[in-house]
Amino acid sequence: MALFQNIRECSFSNEDLTRIGIVEVGHDGTLHFIHRTFAEYFVANYLVNCLTDGKNISEQVLDFILKDIFLELKHEVIRVFIDGLLLRCNPSDEVLKQSGNWINDFRNHTKIILHKAAREGNANIFGFLLESAQATGHTESIKNLLLGKHNISVNTWNTAAESGKIEVIKKIWGWAEVKMTAHEIKYKLLLGTDSDGMTAWQNAANKGKLDVMQKIWELAKERLTTEEITNKMLLRTDIFGHNAWHTAARGGNVDAMREIWEMAKETLTTEEIKNEMLLRTDVGGRNAWQIAAFEGKVLIMHELWKLAKESLTTEEIKNEMLLHTDVEGRNAWHLAACWGNVDKMRKIWELAKERLTSEEIKNEMLLRTDHEGRNAWQIAQLEGEVYVIQEIWKLAKEILTTEEKKMKCYYTQTMREGTPGT
């Protein structure tokens, strides 16, 4: 309250302030904001005034802004207000120089501030830090902080992409075009990877950040060859063997998958789309459809099935999607059983009835075993997935003979007793 009353533009009395409707009188007679957000706005407004009034700022206030306000989790709302206010206010040259020297002296703090601003989408705070470094000639320092990985994971470009903060992406790109070499832009931004081997574009696909995906794609077309876009963005795989198509499937982002599909049609042949997207497997031997089954992404499974019917033959759908097994010998039916999602089990069952004979459904789904000798019902039993067990048993009664069902129960009992089934 005292802060609000000390701002020179304010001449309200306590009584006036209560009539405005943003403060109230407490039991002890002191004034309090009726909501914390009002206080946070006026703190932000005061601090922005300190940055922009044309005078040097005290070291104590500068430290408070950079070390506390820009870093502490509890000040997130204040940062949002500061970012908005900076849109129409320009910090003074004197303050930029002071901040630039602080940035150079406290680089570890600055790296964290940059990542926090990128993650939260505070593009104007981000821009303030870039301008401050430039004002004192510390361009190399800020470049190293921008490109350096926070917690051995990602640089600020990747952080902004993964968080879907397109204004920060634009801010970094605008600065990079002036301050970075073409080689750095290409290999540190567009093709730079995080600790999992994922580019910023892949991270955006994984999180379903369509506007960021589209923006980076546009920028890539300006700087990369068609071959580089194809091999180093679209088809690039991370340490798990996942390309952007796989990561979008794993994240359950239908819109991202559709966007990647359209982008792929710009650079890939029909055959390449089939082999490198629909049928491409990761290090675990799983294609995107199996990944979706394993993760329980029913909408993704539906989308992939629709695309498969347009691009694959009947035999390919049958053998490369429905019955394809990973390195553990598990097909989509097994993978769905692992996580207890009855809806995805039913979805696979309905799709199987479109393409498989009753005998194939029995042998390749109900009775098919993985490399450990376990079928889907036994996998669900070992995982304790009661609803999946019940669902498979219901389906089994329609297809299996009494003897086949008995053998299934016998196997499960011997597994409980620690004796290998036969």
Write a structural description.
The chain has helices spanning 2-6, 14-20, 36-52, 59-69, 76-86, 93-105, 107-120, 123-135, 139-147, 156-163, 166-179, 182-190, 200-207, 210-223, 226-234, 244-251, 254-267, 270-278, 288-295, 298-311, 314-322, 332-338, 342-355, 358-366, 376-383, 386-399, 402-416; strands at residues 23-25, 31-33. It has a two-stranded antiparallel ribbon with strand order 1-2. The longest helix is centred in the N-terminal third of the chain and has 17 residues, at 36-52. The protein folds into 2 domains: 35-189 and 213-226, no CATH class; 267-422, Alpha Horseshoe (Serine Threonine Protein Phosphatase 5, Tetratricopeptide repeat), CATH 1.25.40. It is built from 27 helices and 2 strands. It is an all-alpha fold and 422 residues long.
Helices and strands, in order, run as: HHEEHHHHHHHHHHHHHHHHHHHHHHHHH
Count of discrete domains: 2
Alpha carbon gyration radius: 29 Å
The amount of beta strand, in percent, is: under 5%
User: If helices are DSSP runs of H or I spanning 4 or more residues, what is the number of helices?
Assistant: 27
Largest sheet: 2 strands, antiparallel
- Order of strands, widest sheet: 1-2
Uncertain parts:
1-8, 410-422
Number of strands: 2
The gross shape turns out to be elongated
**What is the structural class?**
mainly alpha
Mean pLDDT over the residues: 87
- The span between the termini is 78 Å
- Percent in helix: 55-70%
